[in-house]
Amino acid sequence: MDDFNGLPPTAPLIGIVRHRLATDGQGVTTLVAFHGCTLRCRYCLNAQCLDPAKVWRTVTPQELLDEVAIDNLYFLATGGGVTFGGGEPLLRSAFIAEFARLMPRQWRITMETALNVERSHLEQVVDCVNDYIIDIKDTHPDVYRAYTTREVALALDNLRWLLDRGADMAHRIVVRLPLIPEHNTPDHVAASRNRLQAMGVTQFDEFTYSIR
Ligand code: SF4
């Protein structure tokens, strides 16, 4: 968390992508990708988020708002807003909470997250996030550890905590379940889906990673 001494939190970015439609949230969205992640996925698509030398820019919430507000009319007309990704956006929870306080109330916030962070990060933003795209990867502990270098238990605990927050939460969560070459199988994916359905997840995005 970058919030200290009463100064506004700042956050390092790797990119901003405007005018996304139906790819990562409702309506027209602007993707804001943060630098930094708790995981080290073997096939990370945004590997620059793991390289300290690859920070693109560092911004305050107000600076980001001033920039993304150029698409305010698109957001309002389509019910869209800002999608925070990365990297792991929940590592920037103080920043996102402050951004949400400043932004127009009609904008939606979508979080693209692996959920593998301390619970305090999630608690800080849960009241301002509308939708979650959760990259759970695979629920088998060995598969997850081999692919990400971390434990899946923390991500699953956070997912359970989110689902326990109300009946409507399941409608606001999409869980990504990739088939990962050399790491899991269709049987693993099916087992993950069954386990997550038993927890209350209803929406899944299943696909296959293409590796070069
Ligand atoms: S969680 Fe996403 S950003 Fe982080 S290492 Fe894995 S693929 Fe990369």
What order do the helices and strands follow?
EEEHHEHEHEHHEHE
Major sheet:
8 strands, mixed
- Report the top-level CATH class: Alpha Beta
**What's the CATH superfamily, by name?**
Aldolase class I
Structural class by secondary-structure content: alpha/beta
Number of strands: 8
Can you tell me about this structure?
This protein is of the alpha/beta class. It has a single domain (11-208), classed as TIM Barrel (Alpha-Beta Barrel). It is built from seven helices and eight strands. It has helices spanning 61-68, 72-78, 93-102, 119-125, 141-148, 152-163, 186-199; strands at residues 11-21, 28-34, 57-59, 81-85, 108-113, 131-135, 173-179, 204-208. Strands 3-1-2-4-5-6-7-8 form an eight-stranded mixed β-sheet. Helix 4 (119-125) links the parallel strand 5 (108-113) and strand 6 (131-135). Helix 1 crosses helix 3 and helix 3 runs parallel beside helix 4 (119-125). The longest helix has 14 residues, at 186-199. The chain is globular. The N and C termini lie far apart (34 Å).
